Amino acid sequence: MKKIVSALVLAGITGVPALAMAEDSPHSVTANLGFASDYRFRGISQTFEDPAIQGGFDYAHSSGFYLGTWATNVEPLELAGSNMEWDLYGGYTFNLGNVAVNVGGLYYWYPGKDSAYAANPNTFELYAGATWKWLNVKYSHSTTKLFGITDSEGSGYLEANANFELPAEIMLTLHVGKQFVAGSGNEDYADWKIGVSKPILGFNVGLAYVDTDVDANNATWGGMTNFAKGSKTADLTDGTVVLTVGKTF
Predict the structure, then answer these.
(1) Is the pLDDT of residue 6 over 60?
(2) What is the pTM for the complete model shown?
């Protein structure tokens, strides 16, 4: 996976100048590269609390249509033997007065899944979001099983995000989300995050506290509270501080 991500990163760094558009062009292409001390998805570590290298590309048209792809390393024991998450997404943005609306779809692909695992984590979600000034609200709805959970088609994730610009170019970010699992009796959970970020030497550096309310009684995610990898056991749902460093080209 690291070789694949490195290739994506190299392509992004060397390819962007060739993809640069004229200033009056309706097209725009950007690339992004990032490092995270722990990849947390909806509050739960996807890397067994280890670091992640992440990168992607985005295309946008002035009409509002966009396409993108993003990849990161993940822990194979958590994702059916795959060591990579590769996201493919596309959608449309438009304005309704002072509100920016964003609708689209996102496919979470885990290439190299081990056939020894019965569950298939590949997941497709439709999403719709609205942003007003500093507040963003978004809902994601799975049309497939949610990361391989039995009878979980139609699961949803509702989130609210707030961003405030502070002095010294510091951005304060607040997040709260609720994962609803269809067909579940005791699988829903909430996550939250508070973080700050600041541009430093051309990079966006962030520090955030992430946590969930998952406990060992949760039917699906409870196993993450006592997740074993070899001789090491970790709680992948507990509160932690995550450092991120990223750059957009």
Answers:
(1) no
(2) 0.90
